[in-house]
Structures are given as C-alpha cells and as structure tokens.
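Every protein is a chain of amino acids, and every chain bends into a shape of its own. Below is the pair of lines this work produces for a single protein:
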Amino acid sequence: MSKVYLWLEGVDFAEFIDDTNQIAVIRGASLALLAAGEEAEGWLKRNQPALAPEKIFSGASLSLFRLACDESGGEVVAAALRRHLADRGLNVLDVKQPVTPFAYLRFVTGVATDDGTPAAIRRAHARARHAQAHGVYHPPARLETHETNRFMCAMSRSRQADCYMRLTEDQVETYGANVGRRIERDADAFRLPVSRSVAARRYYGRKAREEFFARRKGTIGFDAARFGFVNDLHEMVDLAPLADDLSSDREEMTFALREAGQTAEQAWREAPRETVRNKIAVFHVDGNDFTAIRDAMGGSAAALREFDEQVTALLERKVLAGFMRRLQAHADAPDVWTQIPRLRALHGSVYRRPDTEPDDPDPRARRLRFELLLYGGDEMAFILPAWLGLEFAGLFFDAVADAHILWNGKRYDLRFKMGLAFVNYKMPIREARNLAYGLCDIAKTKDRNTIAIQAFESIEPPANGLGDVRSGLFGDEPVSPKQTVAHAVMDADRLAETVAGLMAFKRAGAARSQLYGMLRAAQWTPVRGRAGTRHVSGKLGAPGVNAKAAGYFKDYATRMLAQARPEPALAALFARLQVKETAAMEAWLATHLYDYVDPLGYLEFDVASGASA
C-alpha cells in the first residue's frame, strides 16, 4: 500500500502572536502552536486508525506525519484535520477548564506521496506553503454580532471586540496603563472589551505555562508544588524600595555578616543600578544552519525524527533544566540570605512576588522571574530581568557547548546564534522581540556559538530600525576580516571572557568613565574645511578610530597593570583593548555592558551552596 507524508504548519504569526503586547496572550498562542502536533497526532490515531498514522517529528509550529493511503485519501484526511483544529477551542470562554485555542490560530497542510526519497518531504512542505499563499486553510469562523462590536479590541488593535474580559480590582491599574480608557465598571467588577481570539489565547496562556513545565518535570525539573511564575513584566522587574534602606546600613550589615561567618565582600549585595532596575533581557535563539544539517543527514524521515528528538532532549534536559536549577536555587536562598534579616529582605525583593513577605508560609509565594515566549524546533524566545541577562546567556552556551548528533557514523555539531536585547519593560513587547530577533539574525556565523547584544535606553524602539542603529555605531560594513566578529557578534567563549574581564575591572576599582572618555576622544576626528577645522564623531568600525583607541588604551593599561598584580581576566581584557583593528569596538562593548555584568553580585556567589565562588 502506498504511503503519504502529511505536513502541518501554523502560519501567519503576525495575526495571532504579533497582534498584541500582552504577554499572556502571546504565551497562549505560542504554547498552542507547540501543542498542535500532539493534538493532530491524537486526532489521527482516534479517527484514522486504519491509516496507521505515524508522527515523524513535531516542532514549535510544524509537524510531519506519515499515513498509509494515496494522495487523494491524504488530502481528505488533511482537510478533516484542518476542520477539527478550526473548531477546537472556538467557545473557550463557555467552559470552565482551559481549552487550547486552535480555532484562533491558522494552519495549512501539504500532502505528498512517500517515494522513499527526502524529496517527498520537501514536496509536502512546499505544498503547505503553496496552500498558505493561496489561502487554502480554515480561518476562525465569523462570530455573531455582539454589543461590544462598537469597540476595537483593547488588547489587539487589529480586531473588533466581541466579548468582555472580566478584571479583578488588582488588574485594573496594570491594564488601564496598557490598553487606554476602555475599562468599564460592571456592578462590583470591571470589564474590558476584547476580541474572543485575544480572550481565548489569554485564558489559555495564563493556565498553560505551569502545565508546560509540570508535564516536563522529569526532564526540566520544575517543582510546581513549591514555585510559580510572575504574571507580567511589571512584576518581573518590580523590586521593593530597598536601595536607600540597604545602602544606609552597610556598617550594621557588615558586622552581622561577620557574626555569621561571612565577609562583606562575600555576601553584601547592593540594589541594582537604575540602568538595570526597570529593564528586561529579551532573548531570541535560533539554530545555526540546522536545515543544512538535516539535509546532510540525508533528509529522510528517520533522520528528521532523530534530529528532532536530539534537539528536543538538548533544549529540555540541558538548557531549560539548567535554567530551572539556577532560578530555583536563587529562589530557595542559601543560609547566609535567610540568617540575616536585611539580606533576606533583599533576596525577597529580587526573587519573590512584590506583594509577599520573605517569610510567607505559602510555598508558591516564590515566583520565578522567567517568561518563555517561544519554544520548540530550532528556536527559543524568553525573557528574564536584565540583571540576570548575561548570567543566563552564559548558562545557555555552557549547556550547548558540545552539542552534537551522531548519525550513520558521522558527527554533526549543533551551533546556535543568540540575540539579546536589554530594553525597558514598558517597551511594546512585539518591538522588543523584533530587536532580539534582529540581533539574532546579525549573529549568524557558521561553526560557532555566537551572540549579539545591545541595550536600548528609550521606551520607544529605534525609529528607523535596528540596522540604522548598528550602522550609525559601526559604519555600514566591517572594513577588515578581523573586524567581522567584533563588528557584529561575539563567540560564546569571548562572552565569558568579557564578563570575567569586566568583573575584574570592577574589582580593581577602575572607572568605566575612563574607558568611555578615551573612546570618545578616539572617535573625534578633525576635518578641515573652508571655515576652518571642525571635529566629527567617527564610526567605531573606522580604521583610524580603532588605531587611535588602541594607543590610548595601551597607555592606560600600562598604568593600571603596574599598580598591582593584575587578575588574568583583567590582563586579557586590556590585551583586547590594544588590538588596533578592533580596540574601539571592544571598548564600546565594555562600556555598553558594564552595568549588566553582575549588578547584584551573584556571579561571585554560589547561590546553590551559599559559598563564595
């Protein structure tokens, strides 16, 4: 009997992921896409058992199955599957338990005969994309006219409202700031006019995150009985107003620390700097040339299944498991935190919900400040507080350092690119995600794990896009092969070296302002004209700027390193600042990341054991 491949893919993300800035709505759509493969597999096995349905792989937004039938039969099954998904979750607001809102997503399918070659899978994929281009899918059904149709959806400006979402009194202030003047008073409650699409995705998103982690407890290690997650970005960055209180009592705390057997250098933690305090770290991670690796493995169904299983195991057992261990270790607090009241208060402000006390008996008062926006297949997108950004970038690259797949006696190394954008938490989240995505695209380099990082000070995204910002800093193109990496990205190893060097720089008592002053001096270039000589700011990629910066930093390094026996990491940092092709860009990176390197002191402190690292 002939067999066919059935390709299922979620499409048109701009209409149901990027149409809102509400985290729970984005999360609901993303996790629903991830669940579509499992839903399709279950439906095929229940309704088409005679076709012996076999799942080949399932990723973040796409799945591949094999059925025992011909192409015409496969097309019938594909149409029925699309109808099932278009009906699933349509009336999610009328049920008590969260239902995956597939009806408010959009799926296409492609069917191709399995001829025993990898080309058959590519044909199925191509036919799915052809269907998308020609609108061959089942969009959500048009709902009946509702009294709220006179409003636009308060959470998605591209949709009409056709229902109300009820709000608690605690939510009114947060949503009022985000959605304008659409909140209405209804008896003792508040309500907000929204579209059913947004309401369904939000309802699911608020319930599905912890279920996602709880179902993977054996691989990720999330302890759902003891921990929860923050619910929004305001809560993610919200810290108790402890900065003045703590900084005024350093002498008292130093004495208490000594009584507890700890030195002030080991355990004193100041409140984060203002430049970090209200910011989030937005990550986008993508596999480097994974399509080429799948093709090199042969592109067969067996190869694709093996690739999917190995990448999923890597992301769950190493990456997410490592994240959970670190987040939960932070939240549990080592003894030194719990023994000293003021340190316990600071710890509580950083890792607990702002509205709970450090000694709250409710174990779920521990809220992990982590948001997973996209997961599965080749990609991940997630958010952390800015003060944890570089730490978790390092954790990710440690987890994937030696990632590879063995297939038919050959090794295929897995490499990842990462974009990390530090932004104010009030920046529209879709714009923040776009910045992280753009940085990730810049970081694409073969054969290495790479990262591109940039901090943005304004709440508003760059008016002319990321490319205009980067060219304004560095110039349009790297001017030499040595500048290619420094101009755009860092290797994962160099990220660790940069963090270590900046920590040593801080410990040595050196001032960032000195580096910045020398960098600015190197950028000022005299230009002669009819009106006389004027100075303009040169691009960081200009050869003259880098050569001049290298000279300044050489003199500075000589003075700094002569004062005391330098740490190796500091010596390495100064060595990079003296390379004439890249010195200015290295200095920009150092001054740019200074506030984000260990702002709470955790990288020098083993939070799992309570000992100095």
In short: The chain has 24 helices and 21 strands.
